[in-house]
Fold this protein.
Amino acid sequence: MATGIKRKHLSTYMFLLPAVVIMGSILLYPIINGLRLSFFEWQMRNLSKSPVWIGLRNYRELFADPFFWESFVVTLKFSFAVVVIELLVGMILALLLEKGIKGLRFFRTTFILPIMVAPVVVGVIWRFLYNPSYGKINYFITSMGFQSVGWLSDPNIALWSVIIADIWQWTPFVFLLLLAGLQGVPKELSEASMIDGANYFQDLIHIKIPSIESVIWITVVLRMIDSFRSLVVVFNLTYGGPGLSTEVLSLHLYKTAFIGQRLGLAAANAMVLLAIVMLLSLLLILRRDRRS
């Protein structure tokens, strides 16, 4: 009997092996090749020449570059803001719609529309909305008697303008995950807490949120990873400006590769970005496992 079970498991793994090998090759090859390239000096203007081995020089140059550290700080600010705000807003929307209210399908469809819009289109839409001359946002602000705001030209506001665009697009994603989690919480738990005298907020804090804690952590990890690789919306809205106020690491990498034409240095930048995302994801996953 035990031998039959082992054979069944072995056959399952054998069927999965080709897919695992293919996916592993597709995922690992770019990482390994990028890591190898990060130890070479290779400029786009001299692609006909073979890359020159320079060891860790690209990493030393990268860590000594103040522009890299400025982009790193901007990325941290951006990621922290979008993850926290999207989680809060998504949770509020999910709590409002967790019960089977009339028109729930309409609200779900409406909220999911921003996710379906391509990031390049999101950047163009919000660039028009933020336009100081004919943008609708400044139109409403000036119609109420206030001065026009330089949403994309003021270094103190530009990053928040990008954050708002990201929140608009990705809060529905957070909302759908949290809503699915809340609707999976057994109603008997909330009913029992209400019978014991708990109010809505006590039920929320002690029953609902602990019950969907794993969903919350998965949502945080997914959004954090995605926010660290955010590029297209920032590229279309500000191109990293004014100054370096909105230049996230992915955009700094792009400029290094295609403007500075330093492919080896850009590969080193990519490896550092990958390491940061993997480290943060690992810390969040370990924290979740300890709490569970």
Q: What stands out?
A: Strands lie at 40-41, 52-53.
